[in-house]
Design brief:
- The chain has 155 residues and is an all-alpha fold.
- It has one domain.
- The protein is 72% helix and 0% strand.
- The protein has 4 helices and no strands.
- It is elongated.
- This is Divergent PAP2 family protein.
- Keywords: Membrane, Transmembrane, Transmembrane helix.
């Protein structure tokens, strides 16, 4: 019975780990460059945010039932996280990219001295996910709870 309690936690964390490791291979496929930093980076394919919350939600549904309040709460939580990853965080990264380009253009083309330390700060431009990256994480999160259920939920 105690193992059943860990099923959603283990499933969600495993989905996160699988998605993070898969980013290294996805990046290599796309660029031909092995870059282990993708194991802990945000952004990229597949979305670990999506895989984690989807695995959590589905494992809760499998374990507790799809007609429970807990499933409903985790389902709404998952939608919010995936929306945020795909829209809010993605466009925040795009905004940072645009702002950095404007600062560079002011420096280079207009010879405007920007000596304030805020202009020297290197900000990360990849914060969120493209829609396909969220969908990829969603599918990782769908598959894993089904594969792990027999290990945790024996009758």
């Amino acid at each position: 019975m105690q193992d059943q309690c860990l099923y959603p936690l283990v499933t969600a964390l495993t989905a996160n780990l699988i998605a993070q490791v898969a980013k290294v291979f996805s990046h290599y496929y796309k660029t031909g460059e092995w870059n282990p930093r993708w194991v802990y980076a945000s952004g990229g394919f597949p979305s670990s945010h999506s895989s984690t919350v989807t695995a959590l939600t589905l494992s809760i549904g499998i374990q507790n039932g799809f007609n429970t309040s807990l499933f409903a709460v985790t389902c709404i939580f998952s939608f919010i996280v995936m929306y945020d990853a795909c829209h809010v965080r993605y466009y925040t990264g795009k905004n940072i990219e645009l702002t950095q380009q404007l600062v560079k253009d002011l420096r280079d083309m207009m010879n405007v001295p920007l000596s304030d330390p805020v202009y020297q700060e290197k900000l990360k431009t990849v914060l969120g996910h493209k829609f396909i990256e969220v969908v990829g994480g969603f599918f990782v999160g769908l598959i894993l709870p089904i594969l792990l259920a027999p290990l945790f939920l024996q009758a």
